[in-house]
Amino acid sequence: MKVLLVIHGLDCVGGTERVTTHIANLLAEKGNQVSVLSLTSVDSSPAFTLNDDVTLLQPKRTYSSLRKHLHQLWQVIQVRKQFDVVIASDTQLCLYVWPLKLLSKAKVVAWEHFNSQVVTRFGSRWFGRKIAARLFDKIVVLTEQDKVSWQDKYQPHPPVSVIPNPCAMTVRSSIEAASIKRVVSVGRFTSQKGFDFLVRAWSLIPATTREQWQLHIVGPTGSASKEVALLIAKLQLEDQVIIAGASHNMEQVYDSSAIYVMSSRYEGFGMTLVEAMARGLAVIAYNCPMGPKEIIDDQFGIIVPAESIELLAQSLSALIEDNQLRSHYQQQALIGVKRYVPSKIAAQWQQEIQTLY
């Protein structure tokens, strides 16, 4: 099968770019002829490594404003007869991919990387979803919850399939009894990630419980960086809550921690939760839309009512104080993450592609 994945730009370091690269490589390993069309990167190296048998297609020059959008549309139209399946890796890109339904025999798939409930009405992603719901051959979402949301909001004509993201992190075979006393949370410093909730929850844990522990927040700066830093200072937690910045060695970040917390207001899936489970951390997450509850599944970690600072503090206290409980959830995490191993996700993608014909 000749497969094309279309993405904004493969030279950016982000979750969509990483998982698109991973799926392209996995589909190529399944024997497909795979190409990636990177619409905005010009003669640049991809941020994540593509296999040698995956072809990277890029524009030769940049354009601005309207000409940029017309050129991106033209790039897609130019390859209209070369592929059996075209996957728009972001529903915004449906705005560029839809002509293939009229100009070629290729089957077209919309791949939702985000939470369909969080969208600006009449924005580009909203329009992209509307187009996909009427013209495309299949919609792929990351969670069962988002499948229901998609069907309710957009009434799609094509089928909606659920394929979670694969875990690129190596899964540990076992967890050794450790004396690590660190809690970690990972993500860009934006309001979405709810680090303000997490810092406030940390302040509610009795001082005697957390006195030997630290909370590390790891991720690039963002719109909420200053707010979180000021909150840490206001609550006099500078010695215990560490803003660690972005890291290029996430395996080391997880391996130096015992507990992972996801305090997000919303998620598209919750990839860092899966990564933490792969490295054997006990995990806690808010029951936010969408992803964490399905990943934890009421047995592989602790799920907390969304935005409840008090209950988040209680759950953290329980894991910090009780070594047995913490060890139990560390072992459960290693069991739960097996649902996201690359071989299983690749098989799901291959099956979905084959059912198009």
TrEMBL record:
Signal sequence span is none
GO biological process assignments: carbohydrate derivative metabolic process
* UniProt-listed Gene3D superfamilies: Glycogen Phosphorylase B
User: In its UniProt entry, what is this protein called?
Assistant: Glycosyltransferase family 4 protein
Every copy of the Glycosyl transferase family domain together lies at 181-333
A Pfam family this protein belongs to? Answer: Glyco_transf_4
Keyword entries, A-Z:
Transferase
Q: Which domain of life is it from?
A: Bacteria
What GO molecular-function term can you cite, just one? glycosyltransferase activity
Chain ranges of the Glycosyltransferase subfamily 4-like N-terminal domain:
13-166
